[in-house]
Amino acid sequence: MDAFYASVEQRDDPGLRGRPVVVAWRGARSVVCAASYEARKFGVRSAMPALRAERLCPHAVFVAPDFPRYKAVSRQVRGIFARHTELIEPLSLDEAYLDVTETRTGLPSATATAEAIRAAIREETGLTASAGVAPNKFLAKIASDWRKPDGLFVLKPHQVEAFLTPLPVGRLPGVGKVTERRLGKLGIATVGDLRTLGQDRLEAMFGRWGARLHRLSHGIDDNPVQPERPTMQVSSEDTFPDDLPLDALDTHIRRLAEKTWAGYQRERERDPQRIARTVVLKLKTADFRILTRSLTLPALPAGAQALAAVACGLRERVDLPADTLYRLVGVGISGFTGTEDAVAQSDLFGADEPPLP
Q1: In what helix (H) or strand (E) does residue 235 lie, and over which residues does it extend?
Q2: How far is 257 from 280, CA to CA, in rounded Å?
Q3: 149: cis peptide before it, omega within 30°?
């Protein structure tokens, strides 16, 4: 969906149409949930501090989020998807992968299916959506952004390598800023450059993930669309009214551990066979640096208090200066497995990309 939350607000309030709209609570601790395309022209982006958005676009209209309304529209859109295929993998309220190898409608191609879905969304919701049609998930994701808003981009198999060659290497899934900087020191800026390293070199640098990186550089990704994505993590987090030092987070960690534990129990009620043993502590510094620390145990702590104790202990693994202040803390439980294949794992440091050797 295009600028989903902001577009819903503009649809429902004609006075907002054509104006820069920022979906966010006002305040020093708030972040932008969504920005209309009119606001994006001024550099406003999702996850940006609301105060910065206000500085970039002083005449923007700030609208408080209304998530029940957005969820209702999301259900409506997914109903449209379901007319075409049962293989739907939601990523968020406004985005999903669809496998249309076989469809319920008998339309002749994936392109025709995408066109029909976009037309139905426009007619039934009054909103626009952009679609990417490609041989696999990661390519479809890139393609879906290519002609936003209200666009359709089709990437055929024989076009894949040429399409990827000039793209920044950071467009590949899993390549974060750390990996991008490391590759940049080797003169690797584009996907085409990355291919020149070869699989052996990438594996030497990144281990097994290097092999996947090599495949991605050639447009190869066999991950299927998963209609029932298993829960990967149950977590709770909170942003403080004022930045706090690390040793002042106990009360917040314990409160969030209780919420996370309650969520984990609900997950177990849905599927008693799935268990988790990894405790995750997430922190965001006053200057918006995000870090996580995690520990995989032989067995998950027996309750919320024990979970909180482990999470509090993970602060010892934070090696930032003692005077560092934090604006957010989160507590999570991850590493879900079925009881039949659960094994104790080594300690992990959570990250958005593989650890560097």
Answers
A1: strand 233-245
A2: 10
A3: yes
Q: Is 94 annotated as a binding residue?
A: yes
Q: Which amino acid is at 252?
A: H
pLDDT tens-digit profile of 81-129?
999 999 999 988 999 999 999 999 999 999 999 999 999 999 999 999 9
Catalytic residue check, 95: yes
- Encode pLDDT of 284-335 as tens digits: 998 888 999 999 988 888 899 999 999 999 999 999 999 999 999 999 998 8
C-alpha dihedral, 213 to 215 to 218 to 223, nearest 10°: -110
C-alpha 71/C-alpha 315 separation (Å) is 35
Cβ(119)–Cβ(80) below 8 Å? no
Written as six digits, the tokens of 55 are 């500085």
Select which of 95, 180, 237, 353 is catalytic: 95
Q: For residue 184, what are the contacts with CB-CB under 8 A and spacing of at least 6?
A: none
Nearest CA among 176, 205, 208, 142 for reference residue 350? 176
Statement to judge: residues 237 and 334 lie in one domain: yes
Residue 222 domain-assigned? no
Ramachandran area for residue 128 (φ above 0: left; ψ -120 to 50: alpha; else beta): beta
Does residue 54 share a domain with residue 75?
no
What range does the domain containing 192 cover?
Answer: 160-217
Evaluate whether 113 touches 101 at the Cβ level (below 8 Å): no
Instruction: Single out the residue of 280, 278, 291 nearest to residue 331, CA to CA.
Output: 280
